[in-house]
Amino acid sequence: MSNNIPEYRSATGFDVHQFCDGDQITLCGVTFDFTRSLKGHSDSDVALHAITDALLAVVAEGDIGLHFPPSDEQWRNADSKIFLDHALNLLAQHHATLTFCDVTLICEKPKLRPIYPQLKQNLAHYLSLPETRISLKATTTEKLGFTGREEGMAALAHVTIRIEAT
Predict the structure, then answer these.
(1) Are 153 and 106 in contact (CB under 8 A)?
(2) What does pTM read for this prediction?
(3) How far apart are CA 131 and CA 134, in angstroms?
(4) What string of DSSP letters covers 35-96?
């Protein structure tokens, strides 16, 4: 960085989890009732996992599996906010500020529009961003692929950061 001009970076994260027997899902840190759960080593919050991966990528710090290996039992059933907070702390260590976050949730079911406000509000709180700097969308795959067959859920996240010139 030169001439005291801040650097801007963006990166993408992706996560997927299979449905399993259960009656609740956690998305964006919000737990709600559903006819199934998501299978995974932690709480399987696909949204927070995708955001965490994007945040780690934007400061070239690897991926979520590097920092929280699923083979490590201490992360079994862990709250995904732990992973997100770790990535946000790494951002701070890099003198970076999160400026925007875009999340796309991919599934046929559950229908997420009714809980958008709660999901977006929770993300704003977790990321310390105004809701106007968070884009949250859901889409289907028109019955194609594993999400179309209702076998699981995926999330895609894109983040933008500003690194101050030093």
Answers:
(1) yes
(2) 0.94
(3) 5
(4) SSEEESSS---HHHHHHHHHHHHHTT---HHHHS-TT-GGGTT--THHHHHHHHHHHHHTTE
